[in-house]
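Why do we bother with holo predictions? Because pocket geometry can differ from the apo form. Keep that in mind while you read this record for zinc ion.
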Amino acid sequence: MELIIGAVILLVGILIGRFLPGLGRQRRSVAQVQPVCGCGHASSFHDEKGRCHADNQVARWDGGSWVGTESVPCSCQKYTGPEPLPAFYAPEITE
Ligand SMILES: [Zn+2]
Ligand SMILES: [Zn+2]
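The structure, written out:
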């Protein structure tokens, strides 16, 4: 019986997601909210010592003319953003 109720809830969820795309978009934007450091990178880019391992895209200039961008390692040494909440990483459905 519980299985049937679960299946109905799942079906309703799929239907709502299909017919109300705005609702789905809203939920996705909520999921994108994550702790971000002062350097602009998420906490997942920082190791246990707080160092950032992400790359920054910086403009490259050669003789006064812009020649493109290059990736340089982020100089951030310490994560300064909010502590990530365990709830952010908890799987939504475990059964
Ligand atoms: Zn960084
Ligand atoms: Zn950082």
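The radius of gyration is 21 Å.
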